[in-house]
Each structure stands twice: as structure tokens, then as C-alpha cells.
């Protein structure tokens, strides 16, 4: 009798899980070129991956840029993020971008903007809502996402003309790279000059805090309590400027005891707080 009840219970649990989002069938489209070779802007050819539920229709979209100190990383390392969010009914686009020392931050920003434009013009073919595109990134990728968010008017005209729905910055570096490199370019910051050059004018042009505007789309900043001091300091200066500009829709959430790398690896566990925060933000906007 006990065995029979246990068997019945196991079948019920398995059936529930099978029908839940954890087992939702996905459609993965890999290596889609969003920058072709020989383009007029002179950017290197790059591609992106798209993760979507099968039969997706009018779903929100998260465009993600990975971290790696502006010098390393590749989109394939983040398939766990694409898979897990797509099973929660968010279409995920993960884009490569040019890296230092071969390329500098101007090319990285231009590539990120091109990825956004491609997504705006094409994501409806994958079941995405072009009105609800969120840019996101971790570390150096969070820096690129922040630049797109504050410089939204630099997005090239696209067929649908839609604006961003919001941005999600995950332990973002470089929000005030100008201030950081002014203090450290001869010391610990010297390692970033391959990406940011030795020109202070470039440092400032690619520090998002100096381009904040009152009409900023909603922004969610997730930061680890034990992240790098430079990230904490940059976020504090960024938020001071947010307050000075009277911008209301920027939310900061600090994750107790979390360090820099765990702020992205926590996405491996779908039951964690980060999914509640990210999905809640997307649903609200």
C-alpha cells in the first residue's frame, strides 16, 4: 500500500514538473551575424545567439552582454542564462562584441548598438515584442548596457523605431571609468588602457554617468555586497548623479555577501532571488 502511494505521488510530481517551465521546449538559433564583414562602419563581423520558447509570441526580450574586463569572453559561455530565462518566457539574445587589445571601447559600444538595432528589427520573427527590449550585462558587459541605456538617442534608426523598455546592470563596471582611471591609470587601472586608451577624453566619453538624462528608461542595478571596491565606488557616484538629475526610475538592489563572479553564476539556480528581481522588473516594465 505504501509503495503504491509512493509510486502514485512520484508520478504526480513528475507530471507536474514535466508540465512546468523547467521542461519547456526551447528553440535556439546560434551564430546569427548582426555585423557583416565589409560594413561601412568598419566594425569586425560579430554574431549573436537567440534563446526562445517554441511557439513564442510577443514575449519580452533580454539582450545580454557578458563581462571579461573588456578583453575576454564569448557568448557560448552564457547558454545557461539563455536557457533558464527562456524557460521563464523571456526571449534572450546574447551577443559577442570586439575585445581589447585588438579593439577599443568605441568599437565595443558601436557593436553593442548594432546588436540592439538588429534585435529591434528582427526579434518579432522569433516571437519577441520589439516594444519590450531590455539591455543587460555583467561587469564589462554591464558597462556596455549602461552606455546603450544613457545614450539611447545614438541608436541608429530602425524599421520599427521602438525605444528600450529598460536596462538591467549586473555588478556593472565602468559606470565612472573617467573618475577611476584619473586616480589609477598609473597603477591598478593601467591594465584597462588597452580598452580605454590613454586619453582622458575617451574615458569620459565612455563613462555612462556623464550622459544621464531625465527621460532615462527604467534601470535596475544589481550589485554584490562584496564586489570590487571600484564597482561600488562607481555605482555610488553614478547614483549621486542620478539624484542630482532628478531621475526617479533607477533601482539599486544589493545582494548580501555576494562577490563579483557569483553575481552572474547565481543565474545557474533558477530558484534564487535574482530571478525574482529580474523577472519582476521585466514584468513591471
UniProtKB/TrEMBL annotation:
Tell me if Hydrolase is a UniProt keyword of this record: yes
Q: Name one Pfam family in it.
A: BD-FAE
List each copy of the BD-FAE-like domain by range. Answer: 48-226
Which InterPro entries does the entry mention? Answer: AB_hydrolase_fold (IPR029058), BD-FAE-like_dom (IPR049492), Carboxylesterase_B_AS (IPR019826), GDXG_lipolytic_enzyme (IPR050300)
Q: Which UniProt keywords apply?
A: Hydrolase, Signal
**Where is the signal peptide, in residue numbers?**
1-22
Q: Which SUPFAM superfamilies match?
A: alpha/beta-Hydrolases
Which PROSITE patterns does this one have? CARBOXYLESTERASE_B_1, PROKAR_LIPOPROTEIN
Q: What is this protein called?
A: Acetyl esterase/lipase
Organism, per UniProt? Answer: Algoriphagus winogradskyi
